[in-house]
């Protein structure tokens, strides 16, 4: 038998085997690979869909702001007292300033302030000449520093007694009240602001049929200390002992 006839016979034999006994080894491997790939695609699609669903649920959150305010009284009073005397005789101007200094020290002593509560902070002499006459101006500055706020208020209320004694108080002489205990109340106020934020988040959650979960992230705003009464940053900001401390926090809560 020739080689061509032998090849044709082998092919006919393989076809007969397929009809009799089913698939050959190569075909079987192909079907197995295809089945595994199909299962992998189905499983991968399920996992992808489930992952996207969980990611979407993880993104559910609400960002709100919480406010905390507290009224308090200043714990430090400072008063810079500027006064001056002018004369065409320098010695006379200096003598007038010394008398004014004695009057101021007596004024605060009568109010019960200790001697070291009042300290000199500077002095200067200036002059100008007009039509051949030279005028000298001597300026003196004293500073009062005290934590006795009530006594400081009484001093301010009676400051015109100094004017009655001939002391010329220059512009800018005034009591300034400050609060120095901010670090002591910061933790409590931040907690209050966070609690206020959670209450706001709870309202959003209730409206959407969810519940408030853990804090995802938060930002603490700046603490501000303003006058309790009057315009912020305007008159009354520092010359009033009654203050309002305020802080706003921004909190991002997860929703369950």
The name of the CATH topology of the largest domain is Alpha-Beta Plaits
**Tally of contiguous helical segments:** 6
Shape: elongated
What class do helices, strands and sheet pairing give?
A: alpha+beta
Q: Termini distance?
A: 83 Å
Strands, total number: 8
What does this protein look like?
It is elongated, with a radius of gyration of 44 Å. It starts with a helix and ends with a strand. With 256 residues, it is of the alpha+beta class. Strand 3 and strand 4 form a beta hairpin. Strands 1, 6, 7 and 8 form a four-stranded antiparallel β-sheet that branches. The chain folds into three domains: 54 residues; 88 residues, Protein of unknown function (DUF541), domain 1 (Translation Initiation Factor IF3, 2-Layer Sandwich), CATH 3.30.110; 103 residues, Alpha-Beta Plaits (2-Layer Sandwich).
Topology, element by element:
Blueprint: H1 3-21, H2 25-58, E1 61-73, E2 76-87, H3 90-110, E3 118-130, E4 133-146, H4 149-157, H5 160-164, E5 174-178, H6 182-207, E6 212-220, E7 224-227, E8 242-255
Antiparallel strand pairs: 1-8, 2-4, 2-5, 3-4, 6-8, 7-8
In brief:
With 256 residues, the protein is of the alpha+beta class. The protein has six helices and eight strands, in the order H-H-E-E-H-E-E-H-H-E-H-E-E-E. The chain has helices spanning 3-21, 25-58, 90-110, 149-157, 160-164, 182-207, and strands at 61-73, 76-87, 118-130, 133-146, 174-178, 212-220, 224-227, 242-255.
Tags for this model:
single chain, alpha+beta, Alpha-Beta Plaits, 6 helices
